[in-house]
């Protein structure tokens, strides 16, 4: 593992967490006490269980009430501190309560919280230009703003069908694009099943994208073979479906929630080539992987290719105010100068959200967050690789920037996963509970543990938290491995 003697102790000079998160502690404590004066933590938890529909869970189950958050930490009402090692849902990229964002929201609230999408506003216009410039103004031109990631993918699908006049959308089995009807049908993992009750929506076709470890390949050795095999299968499936009926291929630039699955070398470029061959649009879902998470502002910028549309959300405001969108190429933008864009949302380009977006995007650029992420990768990646070598339960470690995951196995020799796909009796929740018990807050899906901390985390903070993961993995070795 890279140690503090190998890398700067804290964030680079451009990031001063103490200054960025500095507040009047007495005033902050007073605000917390005032906000919580009426309800205790247990009362909040009871009300939540009784009145709130909890996503992706059976209802009425135990829940923890959170009191407040700051930087990379959050606290419950008993005063227990948790380190946010997943940026919540990989959205709090700049941590919690960053003054540059909260103050921008307050300033905008004093001027105008919301204006109809039919009108131009300063925050919406400026943020759109910033995003086009980051993506590359030589290829991209306009932004359609949405409320979040699912909306972004829904509208990208609609645009692709309008522009091409074709019905079919290809997307990966190992993927997640949102829980609305279209985005859910495009998603590949089991969370789409409820949407398919009564039959899946027409025009959605899934293909299997590569997962080198689970498919029996060795990363760095078998990339060319894996790429050739999976591109051949995709091309063959396009032939059977009729490529002239396919509007777009929608795929995460790097698969996120399903385990930070890194594509083999050449695969993304090969998908782009197939799209060019058949006149198919390529939509890169950057909802989770975007905004410096991988050490580039967009994850597709790690590859030698350019998509036709980029969908985004999460890190554009770090979750402070909901916002998403679709960045479209000049060709698509020009199509809609002659054709009506049949997409619309009441809160498209929400004024308060765009003000938060400007503050967040400015912070990424002014503090060179992509550069800092690459420095922190030099701490996180060697540690995770050490865990894969040390522990019986770790099959593979994958890391790019501060986007990483471990595949947890019962038997490393034959790559038997700790939990089968959509396992109703998986032991993975017990593993996640052991991490949470130690104040290491993260999430995982299937047999993966995702580690995606806020991008402002320092080397010292990483080295304070990562031993907790090592400790739990030792427990897993002893408890569940063959």
Task: Note down, in words, how this protein is organized.
The chain has 482 residues and is α/β, with parallel strands linked by helices. It is 39% helix and 16% strand. It is built from 15 helices and 15 strands. The strands form 3 sheets. A 7-stranded mixed β-sheet has the order 4-10-9-8-7-5-6, with helices on both faces. It has a 4-stranded mixed β-sheet with strand order 1-2-3-14. It is globular and about 60 Å long.
Short descriptors:
15 helices, alpha/beta, disordered N terminus, 482 residues
Brief summary:
With 482 residues, the chain is of the alpha/beta class. The protein contains 15 helices and 15 strands.
Distance between the termini: 26 Å
Number of E-type strands = 15
Helix amount: 25-40%
Output the radius of gyration. Answer: 22 Å
The share of residues in extended strands comes to 15-25%
Q: How would a textbook summarize the main sheet? A: 7 strands, mixed
Poorly predicted ranges: 1-9
Strand order of the largest sheet: 4-10-9-8-7-5-6
Shape: globular
Given the structure, what is the number of helices?
15
Q: pLDDT average, as an integer?
A: 93
- Reading the helices and strands in chain order gives HHHEEEHHHEHEHEHEHEEEHHHEEEHEEH
SS class? alpha/beta
